[in-house]
Amino acid sequence: MLRIGDFSRLGRVTIKTLRFWDEIGLLKPDYVNKENGYRYYSAEKLGIVDEIRNLKDLGFYLEDIAQILKEKPTRKRWIELLQSRKDFILDELNLCQKTLSKIDRMIDLVQREQIMSVVEIRELPEVIVASMRTVIPSYDALFKVVPPMGEIMRKQGAVCSVPAYCFNIYHDGEYREKDIDVEICEAVVDFCKDGDGVVYKRMASVPIAAVIMHKGAYESLGASYSAILSWIEDNGYSIDGHPRESYIDGIWNKENSDEWRTEIQIPVKKCKN
What is the count of structural domains for the chain? Predict the structure, then answer.
């Protein structure tokens, strides 16, 4: 039997770790002296230490390792466990690759100072709009909703205003990653008969709105939102309505996402002193 100090040195694992493994039931000593509390381990358990270390190197969590040691898997079960771990790592790698791509694009945008421009105060005019309000599972789903809406408008005889004014209004009152309550609006010259989820209405003017032009892909819109919200607070305004996103240039007319332009419009009011 080996005292914990000798076992620690031979197994290349700290005494603190061995005590922790004992507490969680991962690797129990063979004998504990009741008088002094010294832990003793059999030399055979050095092989278990190597197993634990190898499984940790493969990314298994300690609770998984404890289960594996208890289960003593067959060869078939080992293959299943390792394949499952491989699939998990591949998913994580794919996610990391997407994140790295986003970071690279953001670096490029920052270097070219293309993310955002200055904030200005402007009145948003009264408009007649064709409106479709719906709940979408994610922001990507917008591109599946807008084209069918355009086809419905065409059948209803709607004529879009010139210059075009297409914008979305988000009604949730907070950022949501799914089940997003959005109203898609297209300014038109006159009313048409409602139908197929598209309604026509007059939207009142917004006397005061903070406006910023976002330049670049939609995934970097957060930087512009951060900038305009900070500006609103720093300049003595408060939000007074749902934000709009007005799409000026995008995937429909610009192949390069660096050339996309989206105007963020937030109704505001001056705070009372």
Answer: 3
